[in-house]
What does this fold into?
Amino acid sequence: MPTRAFVLAVACALLAVSLYAQEGHPLTGTWAGDWGAPGGPRTHITVVMNWDGKAVTGLINPGPDAIPLTTVAVDWATWTVHIEAKGVNAEGRLEDIGSYHRRIVGTWSQGGAKGDFKLTRD
Amino acid sequence: MKKIRLVLVVLIAAGAVVQAQLPGAAVYDDWRRVTVQGAVTRVEWVNPRAYVFVDVRESGGAVSNWAVEIGNPLDLEERGWTRTAVRIGDVVSAEGVPARGDVRRARLLSLVVKRTGARVFAGRAAVARPAAVAAAGPTPRWPDGQVRLGAPAGRRGYWGAASVTTMVESGVSVPMRPDGLLVNLSDADRIAPLQPWAKAVYLYRQRTLAQDDPAARCLPPGGPRQFHTPHGFQFVEQRDLGRILVLYGGGNRNWRIIYTDGRPLGQAAEAVPSYFGSSVGRWEKDTLIVESVGYNERFWMTSGGLPHTEALHLVERFSRPDLNTLRYDVTVDDPRTYTRQWRSVWTVRWVQDRDLEEFFCEENAESTFIR
It folds into this structure.
């Protein structure tokens, strides 16, 4: 069981991280989370996105099995995000936009399976 | 027994002005007024916001302690307020703007000390400051004729109040509050040539009353914001070292280096991203032209929340048409955020024969003493 001091140290560390928000394009950064069908197993996903001034580019699960993003579109009126990659189609909504640890929550389709997903920016 | 009471008055006061100290709009409800009457229990004469604490006997007989923010001590001293103007035990009547939510806190508008009957403070804590005053002397110069950005030889001084408290494109005039919040959100398109994502982010920050402003958490006022942040700045021209130091009175006494030794401008991708970027300067006649890249994305480059990316490239032109006036002309070049380059221009007033005073944004972080 963690000690109070440990819990306090973790809380301070999290606070320190939150102080250094990324204030540029809302999608730029590394996002981590998972997806899966309700009640089923969850699959970890990491999504890296970068705004180059004209488009958002990036990868799903960077590394040897990375899947390049082919389309990332945002409806700025509703903060909805559409992400496409080979075999992947996701539709979500940006939440807690002013926070460093903002989230994208929505539906994720991959390989014929469909479920929900949640990504939080690291 | 002194009659001590609390009166809460809700006013419908369109166009009420909020203070420039951040995050005022997110903290205080400018549509309301409160009158706090009682005995002073504590005086916190510290930066960036001084407070008096007042015990108030409420209608049910219970006593509650109110924190009344009275403004920045440096500003208050300029208005004749001293740290002993209100003493512990004084019974005061303070009219202010109450904080949002269920907290006993207010921002002062006026205060009367019953002991003396004196109104020791009246007026808003911070409003748009006046533009630079008329010329009081010629532009100071070094022996070789180059303009001095600092004090004339043998004198003291620093650059104080800017003619603006936020930043908009040159030539644009829209109603804004001193803290950079638009009176009409429909004016967002006129502030700067924002890309769609940037407009969405800017509007989000406006709608949320700038509550996420990094400057409110005492992070450095990077980019052009450094030259309209309260409490001034000064240039230290180290000509023998080929550099100019810019020391800031606001923020957290931050500083920046502008290299004038002829080194090339670093490329953004090569620089470690920072709040003040990497700057090189050169003189063209009487104008110092400074180019900067290498900014991080952890700050808002102006109050009100105009965004930027690491692609930000600034060209700043500093000129001093007379002793009392610094003209600041900045070109914003960030193709990832704006649809084209754009400029903003303002002036800053010289404060003669005074030095920057100590100011630390973090000194009275709310969690340390506001209950």
Q: What stands out?
A: Residues 5-19 of chain A have pLDDT under 50 and may be disordered. DSSP finds one helix and eight strands in chain A. The longest strand of chain A covers residues 43-51. The beta strands of chain A are 29-36, 43-51, 56-60, 67-75, 80-85, 88-95, 103-110, 113-121.
